[in-house]
Amino acid sequence: MNELFTEAETARQKIALGEKPKWKVDAKKILTAAATEPEKVASPEYKAFAASYLESLKMLKKCSPAEAPERFKMLAMACMNCHNALCPGPRKRIQKLF
Fold it and tell me: What is the domain extent for residue 65?
């Protein structure tokens, strides 16, 4: 998850400059993430949040530069929604993406 956050911070900066970010991290790893509470990532709720994140990322990667800021907000919201429901600790850090 830390890698995803770092990648998102870099992407936010690139988007602000009108550039298209390059994604280096395999985001699909969130489907097999090792968590402090493993039962949470095994839940159907987590899997739905992960799918939402991956779809948001897919849309961001495919969008035009003009659409990128809004698509990025959707990606950050996907992170925040999951953490609001399942693991609130990183919310302050995620808030920095907005």
Answer: 2-95
H helical segments located in the chain: 2-16, 38-41, 44-62, 68-85, 91-95
Task: Please tell me the pTM assigned to this model.
Answer: 0.85
- 18 conformational bin, left if phi > 0, alpha if psi -120 to 50, beta if neither: left
Whether residue 33 has pLDDT greater than 80: no
Q: What is the largest CA-CA distance in the chain?
A: 40
**pLDDT single digits (tens) 58-71:** 999 999 999 999 99
* Half-sphere exposure (Cβ direction) of 18: Cα atoms closer than 13 Å: 0
One-letter amino acid of 79? C
